[in-house]
Amino acid sequence: MTSLAKAPTYAHSGKATPRGLVFGFASLVVAPFLGALYAVGIFTIPFIYLNAILTLVFGGLLGFGIASALRSGEVRSAFLSLAFVAVGTALAYYVHWAVWLNRLSEGELALIEALRPDVMLDFIGGVYDVGAWSLAGNDVSGMALGAVWAVELALIFGASLLAGFTIATGDVYCESCGRWCDKHDDVLALDGTADPGALQSRLAAGDLAVLGELPRVTQGDPTWFQINLQRCHGCGQTNTLNLDRVTLTADDKGKEQRKEDRLLEGLLLTPEQADWVTRVGGGDPSYAG
Ligand SMILES: [Zn+2]
Question: 232 C-alpha to center of ligand 1: Å?
């Protein structure tokens, strides 16, 4: 039994740019307005199911927007991006409370007052005791209301950080050219019946030959292995490979669901290797594509 050495994989350099920080701070200015919109939305819409969707959309948009702002400023630090996402989400969440309390009090509590932490906490405590709205005819207050708020908080920050993480870590940056790489999805699709562990460990060891040995996926198969590349079209030197296992299933309504499991991420390739993988998949490795 030979243990295979791990081939190098891509990691962000951790670098930031002044432009990226300016974009990041600008997104922190915008985030509270999104919080205000969200508060008006959940206050106006009386359906808890729609509120939950709105909560997820609100969190997702915050994480996506803030992390995208830093990405467009060429920040290559997931830590920094997620720190901005966390702060922006906290600001938006805070402002949402003030606007929501302002609406609930029918304007009796001025927005500027509601923004004061002591006043805000005082009013939240009051709503906690008496309840804010009815659920199936029962006034929801106390622990039950607190539980709803806790779930809301978890959904907002969960969606926000997940979306932010996806944006902050999904792309490869060419440090020598100073640009994000181009994505080439579905370069090669291989038969899904192969042993995923063996494929994964050979690729992780840099043994690309396995890609030429396995049969290609047959049209209509519900599962396959998918190879995606990211390539720098400036210098051509930065190239990475991702391996995903894709599974199609039908849900109980017969609607197709696509599930992707990432088995390997960011394996670094030489330009020749990236060209070779593209050719194995039947593609044209010329940079024009
Ligand atoms: Zn480059």
Answer: 5
